[in-house]
């Protein structure tokens, strides 16, 4: 992976975390156990500290950055959808930020919240735990049901499994020129191992 020391600070990646080779880590970046960082993600610890706690995932083309002296944090089992931008904010434990959402400085997404896709969360925003956050500017619209939270948790468990799969089985290779006969599909019985716990 492109990994860069800056001013004596080297990114830290736990051995059980998976970071795609095209993701970029710069400076003061801390990636915890069982995290997944997707293709083309950018974690710029060149001003403030970037932290992904255990089990967090940061998907394709996401950006994490912040102001000098501050932290940008995704807490344990946080789930950051494709293309999201996090700047100087804190995403609470077991929360989800949807695709192409933006969360700005000093905003705090409380634990077990879901930020809708394309939401714009203004600087300093706060919300109650286990709420749906929507809009531009974003507001806490309503409490989340336990069923909605369980849906989020199943998705996060899939990314825990994906981190393990990529560490053990992802191999760079040239493409084939034609599909194989009887080509299996991801998820076919016997082709893809299930996540621990049967998820």
Structure at a glance:
This protein has one helix at 146-169, and strands at residues 3-4, 12-13, 18-19, 24-31, 36-37, 42-52, 57-58, 63-65, 71-74, 79-80, 85-87, 90-91, 96-97, 102-103, 108-109, 114-115, 120-121, 131-135, 138-143.
The CATH class assignment is: Mainly Beta
Strand content: 25-35%
Roughly what is the average pLDDT, rounded to an integer? 93
Our count of domains comes out at 1
* Main beta-sheet strand count, sense and barrel state: 11 strands, parallel
Helix content: 10-25%
Classification by helices and strands = mainly beta
Backbone shape: globular
How many H/I helices?
1
CATH topology: UDP N-Acetylglucosamine Acyltransferase, domain 1
What's the alpha carbon Rg, rounded to whole Å? 17 Å
What is the helix/strand order?
A: EEEEEEEEEEEEEEEEEEEH
CATH superfamily: Hexapeptide repeat proteins
Rounded to the nearest angstrom, the distance between the terminal CA atoms is: 29 Å
- The counted number of beta strands is 19
Named CATH architecture: 3 Solenoid
User: Unreliable stretches, pLDDT < 50, 5 or more residues?
Assistant: 190-199
GO molecular function, one term: hydrolase activity
Enzyme class: hydrolase
Keywords: Hydrolase
Region (Disordered): 177-199
Explain what the structure shows.
Residues 180-199 have a biased composition (Basic and acidic residues). GO terms for molecular function: hydrolase activity. It comes from Pseudomonas soli. Its EC number is 3.1.2.-. This is Phenylacetic acid degradation protein. The protein contains 1 helix and 19 strands. With 199 residues, it is mostly beta strands. The protein has one domain (3-143): Hexapeptide repeat proteins (UDP N-Acetylglucosamine Acyltransferase, domain 1), CATH 2.160.10. Strands 1, 2, 4, 6, 8, 9, 11, 12, 14, 15 and 17 form an 11-stranded parallel β-sheet that branches. Strands 3-5-7-10-13-16-18-19 form an 8-stranded mixed β-sheet. A hairpin with a 2-residue loop joins strand 18 and strand 19.
């Amino acid at each position: 992976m492109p990994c860069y020391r800056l001013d004596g600070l080297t990114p830290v990646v736990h051995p059980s975390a998976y970071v795609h080779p095209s993701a970029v880590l710069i400076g003061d970046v801390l990636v915890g156990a069982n995290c997944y960082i997707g293709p083309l993600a950018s974690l710029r610890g060149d001003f403030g500290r970037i932290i992904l706690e255990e089990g967090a995932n940061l998907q394709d083309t996401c950006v994490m950055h912040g102001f000098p002296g501050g932290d940008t944090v995704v807490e344990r089992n946080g789930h950051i959808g494709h293309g999201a931008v996090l700047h100087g904010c804190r995403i609470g434990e077991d929360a989800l930020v949807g695709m192409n959402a933006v969360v700005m400085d000093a905003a705090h997404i409380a634990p077990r919240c879901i930020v809708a896709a394309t939401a714009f969360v203004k600087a300093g925003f706060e919300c109650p735990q286990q709420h749906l956050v929507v809009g531009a500017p974003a507001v806490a619209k309503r409490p989340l049901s336990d069923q909605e939270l369980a849906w989020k948790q199943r998705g996060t468990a899939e990314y825990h499994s994906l981190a393990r799969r990529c560490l053990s089985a992802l191999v760079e290779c040239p493409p084939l020129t034609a599909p194989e006969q009887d080509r299996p599909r991801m998820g076919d019985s016997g082709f893809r191992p299930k996540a621990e716990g049967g998820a």
